[in-house]
Amino acid sequence: MAEGLLGKKIGMTQLFAEKGQSLPVTVLEVGPCFVAQIKTAEKDGYTALQLGFAETKRLTKAERGHLKNLPNLKNLLEVRTTTVDQYQVGQKLTVGLFNPGDIVDVTGISKGKGHAGVVKRYHFKGGKKTHGQSDRMRRPGASGATTTPGRVLKGMRGAGQLGNTRSTVLNLQVIRVDAERNLLALKGAVPGANNGLVFVRKARKD
């Protein structure tokens, strides 16, 4: 069985459970994905599937050659699996891989928020707001050491790029599956902006 499927984030809404409680859900369009390539232990040294998702009009000649007899797929992702003998190149995989009640992990690119200071980036408290200070309210304070070692140590938290990184949210529950429209409703939030690419897989730590 494939480890997961590619899709895109549609947005957030709410669904109501049988007892009337409101559930915050994220709706994803998952699949259909096509098997673009199969990696085998004999030829490649490991086993994996290359999945393709979302059609596009613009591909290079090399990309069109790689996707021979397949749609012009925009996104390709290699997924490790030990059951490659169950698949064929060109096979179509759908959201039917998942069922309500399943627990999944979702990987995406978090929203990029540009350069941020330590208060926003790492939730630092900031400096005092009284006793004469005028410009330390959102500063990190002293970050260096004394004579030994006399420098700022590697890994010290500071201002810098916030977001726009690969992020995974674990153990989200599948609330609803709409096979006709390839939609998946997950309880909770997933990384990234609307229309962002995501990878949904069966949970590994449930």
Can you offer a commentary on this structure?
The protein is mainly beta. It has a domain at 114-140 and 153-162. The protein is 7% helix and 40% strand. The chain is built from three helices and twelve strands, in the order βββαβαββββαββββ. The strands form three sheets. The protein has a six-stranded antiparallel beta barrel. It has a four-stranded antiparallel sheet with strand order 5-4-3-6. The two termini are 18 Å apart. The model has no long low-confidence stretch (mean pLDDT 92).
Proportion of helical residues: under 10%
Strand content: 35-45%
Major sheet: order of its strands?
A: 1-2-11-10-7-12
Head-to-tail CA distance between termini: 18 Å
Largest sheet: 6 strands, antiparallel, barrel
Helices, by number, come to: 3
What Rg do the Cα atoms give? 23 Å
The structural class is mainly beta
Helix-strand topology string: EEEHEHEEEEHEEEE
- In total, the number of strands is 12
Identify low-pLDDT runs: none
Broad shape: extended
The averaged pLDDT comes out at 92
Index terms:
7% helix, single chain, 3 helices, extended, mainly beta, 206 residues
Secondary-structure blueprint:
Layout: E1 4-16, E2 22-30, E3 33-39, H1 41-44, E4 48-55, H2 61-66, E5 73-80, E6 92-93, E7 103-109, E8 115-116, H3 118-122, E9 160-161, E10 166-178, E11 183-187, E12 197-202
Antiparallel strand pairs: 1-2, 1-12, 2-11, 3-4, 3-6, 4-5, 7-10, 7-12, 8-9, 10-11
